[in-house]
Specification:
27% strand; 16 helices; alpha/beta; 34% helix
Length: 557
């Protein structure tokens, strides 16, 4: 077997996502897994909206959606009374939902897609050692029959879980500690008439009870057990699940016919860096934390989407090695923040003190009175608020105030309202928003990223503004042509104009100016969008020289 450009260790959901992303980018990858088969338990259940947006870029979102349950909301009850409904329907995304899909099914679908595209998961193959040098990584692999194989790769990606062999091989400590308390998990049938597009959270004096639909008939029941009441983990049984439902849930809730029963502990740990030379870590190999919020699997998947396009550019010789350093700079701060917030949430869930009870009641009372908090919770759960504004790849350019005033008086620059609109638009580092109402021919209406963006190339969007001269439109059109002639594999550009008309393959008409509004483009401007859907750079006016300066400084450094 020829040596791969990237060796992926671990074929769980994070490793398989990495394999699909790299495969879509034309990177030669090999994925190995020491276990004989994929997981059979449901395990991680939720795929968030932001993760679905990224799967759309590799043509996988619809396949996942078709197999899962579209979760529209989570209802939160306090002492039996509904206080808050956290709805996902109004999320600003093409995927306004929480997709409920068992991890076993997620792995099956990702594995099948990878295989159909020509890939293969090599099972019963285990990495035992690795040694790095300046040009690659030499790995020793052990097969099921005891045969030893030497594999040489340009890079290694560790997706091999909390007990990662790769992490140990590169000498990274897994700093952190076990969290107090235990979680009971059960996938059971419930005698209830709840709608299957919603989850439920019951909070009360005896603790929390979480319910999510699983598959066609079952429900996931999760109950955190406070350490002061359960100093030692109890023996899991259906009778224990019934006891917890009686104590914490609505009257008459009867679990039966379990598909899976488990008791598990949690820890909060993270490595000191996500990159060691030519080795990168993602998912549970890099960090583990409380399941509060359903972020663990999604965080790992988003990490490998962040890394894959950077590895592809580096392997094609298009960028310097410095680009790979941005993986740690962008993703580790988010993981650290996630550990902190989930740790605090778990402390509240585990506590039975009067202070914790007062806090729960106060927060839910406020949330039930004002809609702002449920919207904020939905935005956080969906991962749509993640941004890299302070990251090394995010930059903006605009004319300084003195030059602007001089140019504005001569009607050569955007006016105050246009500058304000741009300042309120999405910033460098933010997730690039989608928009409706784009067309190339009259009568057609498409999403912005249906027309440009659902691939793993950089996208340059040049907005012509709400009022533009014919001469300037011709200049902007030529700018787009020049950009598209540079490297079609790397970059794709489009000119977006307000109004209706017959366009060519590089021009879009923003029929109701919705996209212009979303991007603060009253006056012309330029956005560079990364392959993972985040804005890398923006400038007003649409200045190709400014884009070239950014590209040289950031990618060629």
């Amino acid at each position: 077997m020829s040596d791969p450009q990237v060796l992926i260790v671990g074929a769980g959901p994070v490793g398989l996502t990495a394999a699909l992303a790299l495969q879509s980018l034309g990177v030669g990858c090999r994925i190995i897994e020491k276990n004989a088969q994929r997981v059979t338990e449901s395990r991680a259940l939720g795929i968030q909206a932001r993760t679905l947006e990224m799967f759309e870029r590799v043509g996988m979102a619809e396949r996942l959606l078709a197999a899962g349950i579209i979760g529209n909301a989570v209802r939160i009850f306090l002492d039996g009374e509904e206080k808050v409904r956290v709805g996902f329907e109004q999320l600003d995304t093409p995927y306004p939902c929480l997709l409920v899909l068992a991890q076993s099914e997620t792995e099956r679908l990702l594995g099948e897609e990878f295989h159909e595209r020509g890939g293969q998961v090599e099972r019963l193959v285990e990495l035992t050692t690795l040694v790095q040098d300046e040009s690659g990584v030499t790995c020793t692999l052990r097969h099921a029959d005891g045969r030893q194989e030497t594999c040489r790769a340009d890079y290694v990606l560790a997706c091999d879980g909390a007990h990662s062999t790769v992490r140990k091989q590169v000498g990274l400590a897994f700093a952190g500690e076990p969290l107090p308390g235990t979680f009971v998990l059960a996938d059971v049938l419930l005698d209830c008439d709840w709608p299957r597009d919603e989850g439920r959270v019951y909070a009360g004096k005896r603790g929390f009870l979480f319910n999510l639909p699983v598959g066609a008939k079952h429900w996931r029941v999760i109950a955190p057990l406070p350490p002061d009441e359960y100093p030692a983990p109890p023996e899991i049984s259906l009778s224990l699940v019934q006891q917890l439902c009686d104590e914490r849930g609505p009257p008459g809730l009867r679990p039966h016919d379990p598909a899976w029963l488990s008791v598990f502990h949690i820890s909060s740990r993270i490595v000191e860096r996500f990159r060691v030379g030519r080795v990168f870590l993602a998912g549970d190999a890099a960090h583990i934390h409380s399941p509060a919020g359903g972020q663990g699997m999604n965080t790992g998947m988003q990490e490998v989407f962040n890394l894959a396009w950077k590895l592809a550019m580096r392997l094609r010789g298009q960028v310097s090695d410095a680009l790979l350093e941005t993986y740690d700079a962008e993703r580790r701060p988010h993981a650290q923040s996630l550990l902190l917030t989930t740790h605090r949430a778990t402390q509240v869930m585990m506590s039975t003190s009067s202070a914790a009870s007062w806090l729960k009641q106060s927060v839910l009372a406020v949330a039930g009175t004002f809609d702002l908090l449920p919207e904020k919770i939905a935005g956080q759960i969906s991962d749509l608020k993640i941004n890299y504004r302070h990251g090394p790849l995010s930059a903006e350019e605009s004319i300084d105030l003195g030059k602007w005033l001089q140019a504005y008086l001569g009607s050569q620059q955007p006016g105050p309202q246009s500058r304000l609109a741009f300042s309120l638009g999405p910033h460098a580092g933010d997730r690039a928003p989608d928009a409706e109402g784009l067309s190339r021919t009259p009568g057609e209406h498409h999403r912005l990223f249906d027309c440009c963006g659902n691939n793993l190339r950089h996208q340059v969007l040049i907005f012509a503004g709400e009022s533009t001269t014919h001469a300037r439109l011709a200049q902007l059109d030529q700018t787009v042509r020049d950009l598209n002639a540079r490297d079609p594999q790397l970059l794709q550009a489009a000119l977006i104009r307000c109004g209706l008309g017959q366009a060519d393959d590089q021009t879009l008409f923003d029929t109701q100016c919705l996209a212009h509004t979303r991007y603060g483009a009253r006056y012309e401007c330029l956005y560079l969008i990364r392959p993972d859907g985040h804005i890398a750079f923006r400038t007003q006016p649409a200045d190709l020289a400014a884009l070239d300066r950014y590209w040289t400084r950031v990618y060629r450094a």
